[in-house]
Amino acid sequence: MITDELPISKEFLREGEIGLSNDSELEVMRRYKELSDKNFCVETGMYPLGSCTMKYNPKVNELMASLEGFANLHPLATDEDSQGALELMFNLQEALKVLTGMDYVTLQPAAGAHGEFTGMLIIKKYFETKGEVRTKVIVPDSAHGTNPASASMAGFDIIQVKSNEKGQVDLEDLKRLVSEQGAEIAGIMMTNPNTVGIFEEQVLEISKIMHDNGSLLYYDGANLNAVMGYSNPAIMGFDVCHINLHKTFSTPHGGGGPGSGPVGVVEKLKDFLPTPVIEFDGDKYVRNYNLPHSIGKVRSFYGNFGVLVRAYTYILMMGNDLKHATEDAVLNANYIREKLKDVYDIAYDERCMHEFVICGEKQKEQGSSTLHIAKRLMDYKIHPPTVYFPLIVHEAIMVEPTESESKSRLDNFIEVMRKIAEEIKQNPEFVNSAPHSAPIKKVDETLAARKPDLRYKK
Ligand SMILES: *Cc1c(COP(=O)(O)O)cnc(C)c1O
């Protein structure tokens, strides 16, 4: 029936032109292509972003994640109707158990930091259930900022342990902290290899000190790419860990996600996991909501399922070659480090794992700085590395090539970095005014972080 009455209130009615372009389809396509060409991505060039493991994300992952049965499955579908998805989640849990050595895994957390938070809640509830009051968590001074943040959000106080001259946890300082505040210490959070790309050689001793004190050890698995298939957090003596699927297991990240940070735990922490966990009852795959001490849900439904599909695809495609990824990641980082160390100072200059940290003090004395070196790399079609992190290295430039890069790409990066060092000697001003070729020149870093303006205005 047609009436004069409007189905929506007048105040919502458009008054003027809608403002859509009258361009042809071809022109619109060209416009979007032109805009996308302004973007930098791993398909454009090397992305040596330390700590972030920006490896190549195989396109087959996308294909699998977009299969209708996965992409269109409703999260409230019954177990019976979701057997394929549940099987995939179960198998992924099993694969991650093998790779981490942990006894149980939850796929729910949506990122690494979220996994840390989940792990900290598990540790907290474990001690609460035991009737122990432990309020403190030890975090090394080299740690990623999310570690103290996650522990603090979970209600712990943070105590910092120093790094020694090798860039590793200072054992004497740790022993002092444990002897002074032992009964209050719930655990320690560690990354291994740590954020300066160095393997913590004393990890077994650290594990013993903490366990003798009744504390637990949390493994930040962001750097698993350096040890995958060779070692694992369980062998190193950890009780809880997270894995960044979007780093080690090749799913696109940056620009805000989505990510996935599954958490693994040892046997005695199983009952504290978020529910549901995916199980196989001998006949079919089921969601188990029945864990007596569960910390509850940390994410709607079952985590970022699309990322799980991508990571599982990567693991199946790689098989035993996961070990080779580890080898090549470590080899590539050491190759670059060796080829740059006569020009740039390397913080903790010894054999590194999958990444290493340059200290740009020398270039600063010559009138430039780490920030400018990073910006200048953009002119050479290389994404800037991670800079000014970790905080314990002055003028830090953190380089992680990953296993994906070919030798000629690595050689190109080395050549460019050497060239920039030379440019700084000749004409620091020129380097300091870089990038000269990017669509947007130097931005106000603070303003860009606090009030990002991402609109395109012609
Ligand atoms: C990336 C990273 C994290 C945080 O992981 P997100 O997935 O970004 O939340 C934590 N620790 C280290 C060492 C990292 O590199």
What is CATH's topology name of the largest domain? Aspartate Aminotransferase, domain 2
The computed structural class is alpha/beta
Strand order of the largest sheet: 1-7-6-5-4-2-3
> Whole-number radius of gyration?
25 Å
The CATH architecture category of the largest domain equals 3-Layer(aba) Sandwich
Beta-strand share of residues: 5-15%
**Can you count the helices?**
16
**Stretches with pLDDT under 50, minimum 5 residues:** none
Largest sheet: 7 strands, mixed
Listed once per kind, the bound small molecules are: pyridoxal-5'-phosphate
* Annotation, overall tally of beta strands: 13
Describe this structure in words.
This protein starts with 24 loop residues before the first helix and ends in an 8-residue tail after the last helix. The chain contains 16 helices and 13 strands. The mean pLDDT is 95. The protein is of the alpha/beta class. It folds into two domains: 61-320, Type I PLP-dependent aspartate aminotransferase-like (Major domain) (Aspartate Aminotransferase, domain 2); 322-439, Aspartate Aminotransferase, domain 1 (Alpha-Beta Complex), CATH 3.90.1150.10. The protein has helices at residues 25-37, 59-65, 68-71, 83-100, 112-130, 146-153, 171-181, 203-212, 245-248, 305-318, 322-340, 361-365, 370-379, 407-426, 428-432, 445-450, and strands at 104-106, 136-140, 157-161, 185-191, 216-220, 240-242, 263-265, 277-280, 285-288, 345-346, 356-359, 386-387, 396-399. The strands form three sheets. It has a seven-stranded mixed sheet with strand order 1-7-6-5-4-2-3, sandwiched between helices.
